DNA sequence: AAGGCGGGGGC
DNA sequence: GCCCCAGCCTT
């Protein structure tokens, strides 16, 4: 019975003690919510869909109004779409409402208007996924299924100090295995709601020292004061796109300028053509616009005003020098090589300057894959 | 596996 | 003002 929990040092007695502590607390402290006054599966269904990504306090008035207007599955199956959306207006995620109607029609057609009572059948209904099926199944039909939402993930991760990344689908299995053994088979619906209430009111995302937790004696992260570490969740970093200009600056002797990336930049310590982000439209850029970032840079270095000019006009450049794309884990650079002619003597100019050189891609100055791509692109064109 | 959905709450 | 939010569907 406790094959998985045994690995965490839990025996049957500890499991029983945990359930008792949790459910006693729930019986004393459960919130009085409209859908908790009933076992009507339709009400539970509507409330669970409304509660997805939406807070309890927001849902309550919507729920009351909804079941008054559409008191049965049959009424929902036949409702006019505009009327349905008026009932949902302001809740957001409007496909939830449209899915409700489709599911109601599925129930009318395949289940004689009665909410199905098994997990596979519930999961076939539009808008009902693993969480919602388990919530309805356990609360309305006593199915012994953990309803794993964000609260259960957080609470479970803390109790067992689980390092599994909850943002990975594969981690779901680890939580489910544990919760199938932890859930009280006598009161599965109350167990789920107790865990959710606990997560929503006591073991919240930022309350790391819940002295009033009814299960703190069972909570390894409370005992070890590690609650702040759980749950482990990989930051969802969205990959942003950036337009960059990479200047290939050459003087009359043929020396080319490289600069070393500093600690506050990507590719720290490696040598590159000077690279700057830009937000101009390349196709219609003037020579001035293209050279301005570079002039600003030299100004900053204290090298003063230099004699710079483009070696190609912008439109020529765009055609002759295809863009180089470089993908980091969290951002993508689309780089345009900009060849620039410098009248001044580069070596004399940068003598004594830290982080600038004319001799990169030798054995002393490491260059990145990005820089290799930039050079290859340039040399490919000038072969 | 990633992106879209919509509004509210936390910081 | 920005960031985040674990539910489900679609691509």
From TrEMBL:
<dbReference type="GO" id="GO:0006298">
    <property type="term" value="P:mismatch repair"/>
</dbReference>
<dbReference type="InterPro" id="IPR003265">
    <property type="entry name" value="HhH-GPD_domain"/>
</dbReference>
<dbReference type="GO" id="GO:0046872">
    <property type="term" value="F:metal ion binding"/>
</dbReference>
<keyword id="KW-0408">Iron</keyword>
<keyword id="KW-0378">Hydrolase</keyword>
<comment type="function">
    <text>Adenine glycosylase active on G-A mispairs. MutY also corrects error-prone DNA synthesis past GO lesions which are due to the oxidatively damaged form of guanine: 7,8-dihydro-8-oxoguanine (8-oxo-dGTP).</text>
</comment>
<dbReference type="GO" id="GO:0034039">
    <property type="term" value="F:8-oxo-7,8-dihydroguanine DNA N-glycosylase activity"/>
</dbReference>
<dbReference type="GO" id="GO:0051539">
    <property type="term" value="F:4 iron, 4 sulfur cluster binding"/>
</dbReference>
<dbReference type="GO" id="GO:0035485">
    <property type="term" value="F:adenine/guanine mispair binding"/>
</dbReference>
<protein>
    <recommendedName>
        <fullName>Adenine DNA glycosylase</fullName>
        <ecNumber>3.2.2.31</ecNumber>
    </recommendedName>
</protein>
<feature type="domain" description="HhH-GPD">
    <location>
        <begin position="50"/>
        <end position="201"/>
    </location>
</feature>
<keyword id="KW-0479">Metal-binding</keyword>
<dbReference type="InterPro" id="IPR011257">
    <property type="entry name" value="DNA_glycosylase"/>
</dbReference>
<dbReference type="InterPro" id="IPR005760">
    <property type="entry name" value="A/G_AdeGlyc_MutY"/>
</dbReference>
<keyword id="KW-0326">Glycosidase</keyword>
<dbReference type="GO" id="GO:0000701">
    <property type="term" value="F:purine-specific mismatch base pair DNA N-glycosylase activity"/>
</dbReference>
<dbReference type="InterPro" id="IPR015797">
    <property type="entry name" value="NUDIX_hydrolase-like_dom_sf"/>
</dbReference>
<dbReference type="InterPro" id="IPR000445">
    <property type="entry name" value="HhH_motif"/>
</dbReference>
<dbReference type="Pfam" id="PF00730">
    <property type="entry name" value="HhH-GPD"/>
</dbReference>
<keyword id="KW-0411">Iron-sulfur</keyword>
<keyword id="KW-0004">4Fe-4S</keyword>
<dbReference type="InterPro" id="IPR023170">
    <property type="entry name" value="HhH_base_excis_C"/>
</dbReference>
<dbReference type="GO" id="GO:0006284">
    <property type="term" value="P:base-excision repair"/>
</dbReference>
<comment type="similarity">
    <text>Belongs to the Nth/MutY family.</text>
</comment>
<dbReference type="Pfam" id="PF00633">
    <property type="entry name" value="HHH"/>
</dbReference>
<dbReference type="GO" id="GO:0032357">
    <property type="term" value="F:oxidized purine DNA binding"/>
</dbReference>
<keyword id="KW-0227">DNA damage</keyword>
<dbReference type="InterPro" id="IPR044298">
    <property type="entry name" value="MIG/MutY"/>
</dbReference>
<keyword id="KW-0234">DNA repair</keyword>
């Amino acid at each position: 019975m406790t094959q998985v929990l045994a690995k965490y040092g839990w025996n049957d007695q500890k499991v029983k003690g945990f359930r008792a502590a949790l459910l006693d607390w729930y019986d004393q402290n459960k919130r009085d919510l409209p859908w908790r006054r009933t076992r009507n599966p339709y009400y539970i269904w509507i409330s669970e869909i409304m509660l997805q990504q939406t807070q309890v306090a927001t849902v309550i008035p919507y729920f009351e109004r909804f079941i008054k207007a559409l008191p049965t599955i049959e009424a929902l199956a036949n409702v006019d779409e505009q009327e349905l959306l008026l009932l949902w207006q302001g809740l957001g995620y409007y496909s939830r409402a449209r899915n409700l109607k489709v599911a109601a029609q599925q129930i009318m057609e395949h289940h004689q208007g009665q909410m199905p009572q098994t997990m596979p059948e519930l999961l076939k209904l539009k808008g009902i996924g693993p969480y919602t099926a388990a919530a309805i199944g356990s609360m309305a039909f006593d199915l012994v299924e953990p309803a794993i939402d964000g609260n259960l993930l957080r609470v479970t991760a803390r109790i067992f100090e689980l390092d599994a990344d909850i943002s990975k689908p594969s981690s779901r299995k680890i939580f489910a295995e544990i919760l199938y053994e932890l859930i009280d088979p006598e009161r599965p619906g109350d167990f789920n709601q107790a865990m959710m209430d606990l997560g929503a009111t006591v073991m919240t995302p930022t309350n790391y020292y819940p002295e009033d937790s009814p299960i703190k004696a069972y909570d390894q992260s409370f005992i070890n004061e590690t609650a702040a570490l759980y749950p482990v969740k990989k930051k969802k970093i969205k990959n942003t796109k950036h337009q960059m200009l990479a200047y290939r600056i050459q003087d009359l002797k043929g020396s080319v300028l490289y600069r070393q990336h500093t600690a506050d930049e990507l590719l720290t310590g490696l040598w590159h053509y000077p690279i700057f982000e830009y937000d101009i439209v390349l196709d219609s850029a003037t020579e001035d616009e293209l050279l301005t970032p570079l002039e600003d840079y030299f100004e900053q270095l204290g090298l003063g005003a230099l004699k710079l000019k483009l070696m190609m006009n912008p439109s020529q450049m765009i055609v002759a020098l295809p863009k180089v794309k470089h993908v980091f884990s969290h951002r993508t650079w689309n780089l345009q090589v900009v060849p620039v002619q410098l009248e001044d003597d580069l070596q004399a100019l940068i003598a004594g300057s830290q982080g600038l050189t004319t001799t990169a891609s030798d054995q002393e100055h490491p260059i990145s894959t990005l820089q290799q791509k930039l050079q290859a692109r340039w040399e490919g064109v000038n072969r």
